[in-house]
Amino acid sequence: MTLAPLALKDARIYYSTLDATGFANKISLDDTYEDLDKTTFGSGGGRERVAGLADMSAGATIFWQAGDLSYPDDVFWATLGTNTQPLTVCPTAGTVGSVAYLTKVFLPSWKPGADVGKLLAADVTWSGNEPLARGAILHPQGTARTATGNGTGVQVGAVTASQSLYANLHVFSVGAGAQSLTVKLQSSVDNTFGSPTDRVTFTAATGLTAECKLVAGAVTDTWWRVVYTITGSTPSFLFAVSAGVA
Amino acid sequence: MTVYRFRSDAALAHPQSGFAVMPAGGELFDAGDPLVQAYPSAFVDAAEPADDEAPGDES
User: Distance (Å) from the C-alpha of residue A155 to the closest C-alpha of chain B?
Assistant: First the structure.
């Protein structure tokens, strides 16, 4: 095993309909289990511990800009106080198969500010409203889709009875005109997807939108992919899908 | 930027994450994609006809 440390240069941050990659310069994740002390007189003189509730938070520093629901100020203002929006963070460029951390988050505050003459920015903190899952990008943000198709299969893994597969959809760009995108997750026992099983379908997107879905375990299939159905006049969508087991 | 099409029938291990991936048929990848850079022989220039479309290819 060779050490290959990562210089954080092209991290991807997707929150709701915002691709914050080009607006942010700092990101952090915190996934913590409560440390419960179960030490007794029978513990042999040493402490014993057990995990309590899991909790997560994430933080980012984001430059202020407004315009529409693809810009930070619009997205954070629209989702302030909500607990339904998806957050996906990739340490490396979010190509298909890249590591992704994903969850559904509560946004308690939006506090842009700066000293005179400085760049207006905000330190954002999200609180988890679902377990933080580690998985992969199933559909990359940078690939525009104009017709129905199947995505690349990724061996995200099986889901035990006590787990779920969590999936986030972020729709970042929609072409002009009436058009619709419906994204479905399929699983398969192998990489051929010869007989895939439909697992969950996101709400049809006709504009910028984002959604969290989950597939409850147990699922013994280990391969997962997205299937996207696109209709409308000269449609074009940019969207990202992440999925992970927790 | 040149785009490439996956031409293998075997899954690849993503060079950064380790997840096994199986690109869908016809899926296009940028030259800078980690999969293309790690497995150049598994991809073909998308401008070229696929093997099963090549003239005279009866295999």
Answer: 5
